[in-house]
């Protein structure tokens, strides 16, 4: 081997030892790029992921608690408590099954509440009531505070997206899906003929406290057009009077989502 070849080999060996090993799979930059270019609506993503769970879910992603009606959360009993400093502090844990990149996405989504409301997610120490973020068989949460350990599932294969994490976190804070609110028939038409009769219960209206806010087509809590549709291309939900209004966005909380958080928790 010539001296120049030996020198080149040594340089390459040193460089390989200096560079950190990367985890298998996509880098954070590649994951962010995929999320930007992805066009799957949030409901399709959540419902597809939840096909893999044996959990009994209502409206596609709401766990059924044993202590109360899963659809009722407008009383003080199921809201997270406000501290003396007027901040709503919610302890949480994140499963070690998530990669460093996935963990960071979860933390970023939780921190997005802090900059726009009085909600503060803090690592759990010894608090009795807390949210346990786990890698289970889908994307789902309970409605509001249930007491004790409260599971918020974010399956690694389909739920680690900013909008999905916010969506499930809003359920944990006590918020319904937008299209089930009490006045929805003035804003959307439910196309019952395009919905599997066994899935029709997912579109039941609820006696919601709408917090004096208008109906929000752009809410991160709104179903997409084809949720629970019996056939691809058939809409289960149509906005009215303008059928072309976008629903089921997936990028993040709308301004009305934020306003409702602040209204419900008196931020």
Automatic annotation (TrEMBL):
Cofactor comment text: Binds 1 zinc ion per subunit.
Binding site for Zn(2+): 167, 171, 177
Enzyme Commission identifier(s): 3.4.24.-
GO BP annotations, alphabetical order: proteolysis
GO cellular component, one term: zymogen granule
Domain Peptidase M12A: start-end pairs: 69-267
Segment forming the signal sequence: 1-18
InterPro entries reported in the protein's UniProt record: MetalloPept_cat_dom_sf, Peptidase_M12A, Peptidase_Metallo, ZnMP_hatching_enz
Subcellular location: Zymogen granule
SUPFAM superfamilies, per database record: Metalloproteases ('zincins'), catalytic domain
Pfam families: Astacin
Active-site positions on this chain: 168
Keyword set includes tRNA processing: no
Regions annotated as coiled coil: none
Cofactor(s) needed by this chain: Zn(2+)
GO molecular function term, any single one: metalloendopeptidase activity
Keyword Zinc in annotation: yes
Highest taxon above the source species: Eukaryota
Keyword terms, alphabetized: Cytoplasmic vesicle, Disulfide bond, Glycoprotein, Hydrolase, Metal-binding, Metalloprotease, Protease, Signal, Zinc, Zymogen
UniProt-listed PANTHER family: DISCOIDIN, CUB, EGF, LAMININ , AND ZINC METALLOPROTEASE DOMAIN CONTAINING (PTHR10127), HATCHING ENZYME 1.2-RELATED (PTHR10127:SF839)
Protein name: Metalloendopeptidase
